[in-house]
Amino acid sequence: MAAAAFVGTNVDNTVVTAAMVAGAPLARAHRIAVGQVVGFFLVVVVASAAAALLFEFSAAEVGLLGFVPLAIGVRGLVGLRHRRGGRAASPPTGRRPATDRAVGRSLTAAALVTLGASGDNLAAYIPLFHEGGVTNLLTIAVVFLLGEVAVTAIVLSAGRHPRARGVMTRLGAVAVPVLLCVVGVLVLLSAGTLSWL
Predict the structure, then answer these.
(1) Residue 43's closest CA among 147, 188, 132?
(2) Is 162 helix (H, G, I), strand (E, B) or coil?
(3) Cβ neighbours of residue 149 closer than 8 Å, sequence gap 6 or more
(4) pLDDT in tens, 51-82
(5) Could you tell me where the DSSP H helices lie in the chain?
């Protein structure tokens, strides 16, 4: 059950994080992967705390997390618009403008995106942790640890692959912000949060 819950809830995070790695400088690949691990750890902490307190989130409440990737994606698209409009010319120091490195290229952004896209994770993990028992919890911890190692390896391998990087180069800086917006909207829609608001 732990393996099924992990796989079923981490496909979207794996794809999004691999796209973030592919769209970022190679030097930032490990930071993004670590951010994904940190985000997943936070999801597990929240789920285990909720299970320990016998607290259940409604689907619509969990769906509020969809605003995180949506906000990061919108910020990236607005930054691109400003840059293309000539308002964010490169500074005389030769450094790239902040909009070139603002979206999905940091540990913090990767952690926030993983956390924001974790509505399905929380929905699956809280009941799983409710089962309790030292053996069950240790088994879940081992499965999640092995699963996270596999996800990190996939993210780094796929994101650093020349073809993936080529696609991201052709799509330009628009791809990651658009993907983040799509993930955010899908989380909000699937959880029914928009109708709840």
Answers:
(1) 147
(2) helix
(3) none
(4) 888 777 788 888 898 999 999 889 888 887 77
(5) 2-22, 29-52, 59-63, 67-84, 98-101, 107-116, 119-130, 134-160, 162-171, 175-191, 193-196
